[in-house]
Design a protein that fits this description.
The chain is of the alpha/beta class. It is built from 21 helices and eight strands. The radius of gyration is 30 Å and the shape is elongated. The structure holds guanosine-5'-triphosphate and magnesium ion.
């Protein structure tokens, strides 16, 4: 699913990765590539246009945090836009109802996967502790009842049907009564496939809605039909004002356009995606996870997110400036530790930064180290922090006492700090020669390895 779109987006975004600044020119080029990728994936033209405009605006307006590269920032912006286009938050079924049973009506075009989905949903709800009943509301196709029965048996969910009854309202109403008498708290009503141009069938769907007043109407659409999915959704929505969309056959070579267009066009959330003919292949739709899947760069995204949320931009820039100028002292170091601490546990942090988790093996991260370091620096005077070279023997033992540590610990910290400064010198040289300072050569790395 989405392979081709993913690949193209990746290529487009990679082109930015060598750039030190985002400007009109390179962002313009990237947006052209992204636009083409989306259109090739059969995303609706208007949706594509809006998408690209939004990303461009945000990219040019955004403060780029220093510890994050411009390319990483754009990945994040594109990711957020994908999430947005697909509906933002995950939307649950509306089953919080006073009425028992709650009724879910399943509607859509012929062969879109309604019956298969109904069974998958029954299984999912059952797993969640609900007590579903499947109701065979396809009164037209002779084999429809048998198909649903077979599926129901395979998941141990009862199926209600009235053979030879041709009025779907009669079947549906009797199904609801039956569910009530059997203490089944959710009815899933599978309906006949209908063509949107078939006025009689569309009117029937409307009358089911009117009579049963379902808690939830789900519109099932085959994701393989691309743009047509959006048009169909529009027509069904005008007639039924449905509550959510189910995209089926996402296991096929769908280009993904429907997933990215439907929410924007009909303003209804995608609630499930179905991939496969087996009854257990139903996924709840999470826009955020889907965006990660499309971009394949989840780790970069969460890193930027964390950095945005917590790192104080001004402080970080000030520290970096001092690093470059080699004026970095223990006070700065302390400040940097505080900033990093805000980002959560070190382990989490390290796992989030691409490359860093390889540079620092898990067993080398010892959070208690940090506390010791903090305690020691806390026991120093401002003068000592600013000019560590004044810290002589008697100062060392005073600091050790004050922080509840040993003189060796203080020695160790000072030694590490000096080494770090040495290291920073070489980083500074790197920076001056034009090479980028990345998370990999932050002083933290060195420190944690000692
Ligand atoms: N690969 C794949 N096949 C699916 C999926 N969902 C359904 N199918 C297949 O698509 C065909 C139609 O599925 P149904 O569930 O019968 O569709 P329907 O909408 O109930 O069809 P009608 O009742 O005839 O309108 C069947 O062969 C299913 O096995 C899916 O997510 N992936
Ligand atoms: Mg069917």
């Amino acid at each position: 699913m989405f392979e081709s779109l993913s690949d193209k987006l990746e290529v487009a975004l990679k082109k930015l990765s060598g750039q030190s600044k985002i400007n009109e020119v390179n962002i313009g080029m990237a947006m052209r590539d992204i636009k083409r990728a989306l259109l090739d994936a059969d995303v609706n033209y208007k949706v594509t246009k809006g998408f690209v405009e939004d990303v461009r605006k945000k990219a040019l307006g955004e403060d780029v945090i220093k510890s994050v590269s411009p390319a990483q920032m754009i990945v994040k912006i594109v990711h957020d836009e994908l999430v947005d286009v697909m509906g933002g938050e995950q939307k649950d079924l509306n089953l919080l109802t006073q009425r028992t049973p709650a009724v879910i009506m399943v509607a859509g075009l012929q062969g879109s996967g309604k019956t298969t989905f109904s069974a998958k949903l029954a299984k999912l709800l059952q797993k969640k502790g609900r007590n579903p009943l499947l109701v065979a509301g396809d009164v037209y196709r002779p084999a429809a009842i048998d198909q649903l029965k077979t599926l129901g048996e395979s998941i141990d969910v009862p199926v209600f049907s009235i053979p030879d009854e041709k009025n779907v309202l009669t079947v549906a109403q009797a199904g609801v009564d039956f569910a009530r008498s059997e203490s089944r708290n959710v009815v899933i009503l599978d309906t006949a496939g209908r063509l949107q141009i078939d006025e009689e069938m569309m009117a029937e769907a409307e009358s089911i809605k009117k009579e049963l007043n379902p808690e939830e109407i789900l519109f099932v659409v085959d994701s393989m039909i691309g743009q047509e999915a959006v048009n169909t959704a529009k027509v069904f929505n005008e007639r039924l004002d449905f509550d959510g969309v189910v995209l089926t056959k996402m296991d096929g070579d769908t280009r993904g356009g429907a997933a990215l267009s439907i929410k924007q066009v009909v303003e209804k959330p995608i609630k499930f995606i179905s991939q496969g003919e087996k009854v257990d292949d139903l996924d709840i739709f999470y826009p955020d996870r889907m965006a990660n899947r499309i971009l394949g760069m989840g780790d970069v995204v969460s890193f930027v997110e964390k950095a945005q949320e917590t790192l104080d931009l001004e402080k970080t820039q000030k520290l970096q400036k001092r690093l470059i100028e080699n004026e970095f002292n223990l006070e700065d170091f302390f400040e940097q530790l505080q900033e990093l601490k805000k980002m959560g546990s070190l382990q989490n942090l390290v796992e989030m930064i691409p490359g860093l988790n390889k540079a620092i093996p898990k067993q080398d991260i010892d959070e208690s180290n940090l506390k010791v370091i903090e305690a020691i620096i806390n026991s120093m005077t401002i003068q000592e922090r600013q000019s560590p070279e004044v810290i002589n023997g008697s100062r060392r033992s005073r600091i050790a006492k004050g922080s509840g540590t040993k003189v060796q610990d203080v020695n160790m910290l000072l030694k590490q700090f000096m080494e770090m400064k040495k290291m920073m010198k070489s980083v500074t040289k790197m920076a001056k020669s034009g090479r980028k300072i990345t998370a990999n050569n932050l002083p933290l790395n060195k420190l944690m390895n000692n």
